Amino acid sequence: MFCNARLINITHKNSTVRRTVEFLNAKFINNTILLIFFNMLLKRNAKLVLEDNSIFHGFSFASQSSVSGEVVFSTGMVGYPESLTDPSYQGQILCLTYPLIGNYGVPAMQNDEFGLSKYFESSKIHIQGLLIDDYSFEYSHWNAKKSLAEWLKEYNVPAICGIDTRQLTKKLREKGAMLGKIVINDKDVKLYDPNKMDIVKEVTVNKPVFYESYDGAKQNKKNKKIILIDCGVKNNIIRNLLKRNLDVIRVPYDYDFFDFDFNGIVISNGPGDPKMCRKTIENTEKAMRQNIPIFGICLGNQILALAANGNTYKLKYGHRSQNQPCTLVGTKRCFITTQNHGFAVDTKSLDENWQEFFVNANDGTNEGIKHNAKPFFSVQFHPEGHSGPEDTNFLFDDFVKMLK
User: Fold this and answer.
1) What pLDDT digit, counting tens, does each position of 73-115 carry?
2) Domains and CATH numbers, the chain
3) What is the C-alpha to C-alpha distance for residues 321 and 314, in angstroms, rounded to an integer?
């Protein structure tokens, strides 16, 4: 597999090269011959180097900087604008397994009625680098304003096409998530492990942010207030709370928020090892002692478990896709969910006051917990979707019902 053949036309301005490519296309020469010709014209100037010294060669089509991080894969077919801006990917080099990427471009940065970005899950790209098979240099979509390559360059994010993503994904599934580095033009960098540092510090807000819900009948009633612990929250989580007429106080992950007047707590998604969020765990414990309603999402599921004296562990290669099946415990109902996490809750470490809420139908790992008697529950998946299904949106309604 290789980058879109139009890369030759774009990269090489020489008229002879362009005419040769046009000739090949006109004569319908098969892909194998075109690939040989393509590799004669272009030097593979970029490579992915894994911690086991495996090397995958490819072509750079974005920033020319070299980076390192944890190499992970996502099987989603669409939704790269949302995925690349998901703060949970902070510190990670993302491999997209769907073969054709970039064909619908990137939308403009526009805000909705709440002041949140309409089409992105945060204000910037969070991945360290991008790995794909075939990049489409030409894009077409009614809402597209720029190409994926242009967008990546704006944020100085490198990307490689021409990678054998199937082979890379098989390796990551067999050996587990690995550290790696994107090296461009032989500019080497050291390996970097985001899970050994408090990486949530890089994606949380630095001071409280207040959001008021839009409620036409607000003059007649007082909206309930929610503390949103920002461990790297996605915009659509905030949007789902505001749409339910909840005023939101978004606070840094290590903030002491107990002086605020509020009715419940949401612990957001985020990157890295949950055990690094010591202050978040401490504040969650304190809230639990006061019986304050709590709803955890993704990393929030792990934070809640740790606050309940449970344990978490690192998954072999994590769950990153838009089609993870999750079964509601005690029923035959299975929901298709969006997920992006590398750690999970060990439910055996929780005491008898807790029960499993959801279970992953693929591998049996935990997908949620809830307290038997108190208003605490959490899920490992993303009920807000974006990208992906929103079949479990009802969990936000369940949380609203718990509020005092």
Assistant:
1) 999 999 999 999 999 999 999 999 999 999 999 999 999 999 9
2) 1-42 (no CATH), 44-196 (3.50.30.20), 199-402 (3.40.50.880)
3) 17
- State the alpha helices, DSSP H only, in 266-393: 278-289, 299-307
Distance CA 256, CA 379 (A): 24
- The single-letter code of the amino acid at 31 is N
Nearest to 3 by CA among 103, 84, 93: 103
The span from the CA of 91 to the CA of 180, in Å, is: 11
> Which is catalytic among the residues 298, 319, 367, 371?
298
Closest C-alpha among 370, 369, 379, 381 to residue 320: 381
- Tokens representing 336? 């298709």
- In this predicted structure, the answer to whether residue 366 has a pLDDT above a threshold of 60 is yes
pTM (2 d.p.): 0.89
> Exactly one of 319, 341, 371, 382 is catalytic; which is it?
382
Q: Which pLDDT tens digit goes with each residue over 17-34? A: 444 555 555 554 555 555
pLDDT exceeds cutoff 90 at 35: no
Sign of CA dihedral 80, 85, 87, 91: positive
From the candidates 70, 121, 367, 384, give the one annotated as an active-site residue: 384
Residue 147: is the preceding peptide bond cis (ω within 30°)? no
Rg (CA), the chain: 23
Q: What tens digit of pLDDT does each residue of 158-196 get?
A: 999 999 999 999 999 999 889 999 999 999 999 999 999
Q: pLDDT confidence of 257, banded at 50, 70, 90?
A: very high
Mention every residue, 6+ apart, whose C-beta is less than 8 A from residue 85. Answer: 117, 120, 121, 122, 123, 124, 125, 126
298 is catalytic: yes
- Round to whole Å and give the CA distance between 39 and 11: 13
Give yes or no: 371 in active site. Answer: no
What the block records as the tokens of 261 is 């007047």
CB 3 within 8 A of CB 134: yes
What is the pairing mode between strands 67-74 and 178-184? antiparallel
Q: Is 384 a catalytic residue?
A: yes
